[in-house]
Amino acid sequence: MDDNAIDALLERVLAPWVRALGMKPVEVSEDSATLRLPFSGELRHSGGVICGQVFMAAADTAMIVAITAALGAFKPMTTVALNTNFMRAVRKGDVLVTARVLRMGRSLVFGEIELYDEDGRMAVHATSTYALLD
């Protein structure tokens, strides 16, 4: 998938508020995707750090791209589980989000997502399960 195909996919399948995060592709392979979550002060809560909800949406979005790349085309899917561990607060800077397909079954896909702060330190680690809907 090239950048234009990924941008078109995100435009077509994401809710408007998730699209507003402005995630952009960095690198996509046959079973993984890395997206850049650009920093915005609007993503921070009153404690001054980026909200966990933002990171969960970013992880989910990157996994959709990774699954689509692994399948070779978008297929309707839904998140069954997203287990997220917040390991480090992020106050500023872009975040790199890398999602990997660990196992592609007939109806379930298992994945892992890592989010890194601007200094290359892991801030969030998540595991996921998706159901393919058709």
Automatic annotation (TrEMBL):
Pfam families: 4HBT (PF03061). Residues 48-122 form the Thioesterase domain. It comes from the Bacteria. Transmembrane segments: none annotated. The keyword Hydrolase applies. Keywords: Hydrolase. This is Thioesterase domain-containing protein. It comes from Paraburkholderia hiiakae.
